Amino acid sequence: MGPVEEQRASIVVTQKLTKIYGRGATRVTALKGVNLRVRRGEFIAILGPSGSGKTTLLNMLGALDRPTEGRVIIDRMVTSMVPERRLYKIRREKLGFIFQTYYLVPTMNALQNVLMPVLPIRRNKRYEKRAERLLDMVGLKGRMHHKPGELSGGEQQRVAIARALILNPSVILADEPTGNLDSKTGADIIELMQRLNRERDKTFIIVTHDRRLADNAERALYLEDGRLSDILPEEY
User: pLDDT tens for residues 161-196?
Assistant: First the structure.
């Protein structure tokens, strides 16, 4: 595959990505020249100790924060150079987010939570039908009218996954998606994400402490002290 074809196949790219917080004595370099290339349809796990820069990297990839130096490219768009007023469109159309703590609205049922990302656009039957299909797909057909407090942790995470898919994004960014789940439920969530990757060609970039995700990923990377490597330490 030549350079042009390889570039077209890449949906997420970072080039010399650097993030520095603070100044002087409080200066912290969270990312140090990270180069990453993710091809469309890959399932990637990024592991590393707490404080290694994993969440910072995910925030950069999700256009939630801007780099101090370097570039982030999502589907051929340099997001680190896009004005803030236009970033919301990239996040809405290209990216889906899954978080460790779910971030479901407790007063809304599962169906309403899945519809949250589309409510600022408009509420119509097309999106409602899609939300119902997504909840069915993640195994919650009979639970869509239950509120988060009536759902287990695994069910809440399934709602969060369905919500991440409602606008059909190309890339799913997941921050410790199994971190609050027991072993069996975590394994079920991993299997669900893998199925979405295989059957729907969704690109997954997951930051995690969970070695099972590394074992099941197409590619596992290791981040430590702000530097990215494809070599996992023995303890992982």
Answer: 999 999 999 999 999 999 999 999 999 999 999 999
Q: How many CA atoms lie less than 13 Å away from 149 in the CB half-sphere?
A: 4
DSSP character for 26?
G
Q: Give the separation between CA 143 and CA 184, rounded to whole angstroms.
A: 20
User: Residue 236: pLDDT above 70?
Assistant: no
Helix (H, G, I), strand (E, B) or coil at 20: strand
Give every CB contact of residue 217 below 8 A, 6+ residues apart in sequence: 43, 44, 45, 206
pTM of the model: 0.92
What is the residue type of 173? L
Exposure of 69 in the CB half-sphere (CA atoms within 13 A): 10
Is residue 234 scored above 80 in pLDDT? Answer: no
Nearest Cα neighbor of 14 from 101, 72, 57, 94 is 72
**N-term to C-term CA, the chain:** 32
Domains of the chain with bracketed CATH: 41-65+82-229 (3.40.50.300)
